[in-house]
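Appendix B. Chain record.
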Amino acid sequence: MPQPEEALELLSVHLRWYIEDSDAEGAEDLADRSFVEKLVRTATSSLEGFAPAQSRELISFWQNNPDHWKWAVDDFYSRQAVSDLPDIVRRFLRLSPALVGRIPSAEVSTYLREATRCFLHGFFQGSIALSRAALEAGINEHLAVQLGTVPRVDLIDKLRHVERSGVLNPQLGNDAHVVRKLGGAVLHKSPGTENAAYDALVKTRTVLTKLYQR
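Structure tokens predicted for this chain:
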């Protein structure tokens, strides 16, 4: 476990210092940079999600000044990435390896990898939805091997079939249903939290590890 003084050697800390020193050197431009940052936030919101229709003129301004726009966006996301690094590392260190006897299909692996990366980067709704997708893809693959086909039923019925077969013990079966419910909630009810995303991801990894243990 790194001691406080050793933590200062982290690259993320040096990057943050570099940005702070750069800002200090151009302190007289701080107000201008803050104003530009607000303009960038408004413009990027229209691309990441939604922005007021009144933003049309601002977006046209950036489109007419592509070099300035590229610089502003690079500056904005570079600062955001460095700011996010401590939380990304913190979340990563909460996870344990998923060690299996046989590697799942590309579909299962992709869903789980992207669910994990969404969790690390703070996209908790996406992480929960992808955890559920990874779980169902793994269950489908297991049923295809066991039955020769994937039943055209809901995930809850697929899980019940796997539970009855004895592949998942009661605890793992409960974990799988928790992931199913969290996935349904984030898609149909309300956004998920970091703890919910962590719970869904860990339980998904645990169930899949069991399905692919040999």
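Further analysis of this model is presented in Appendix C.
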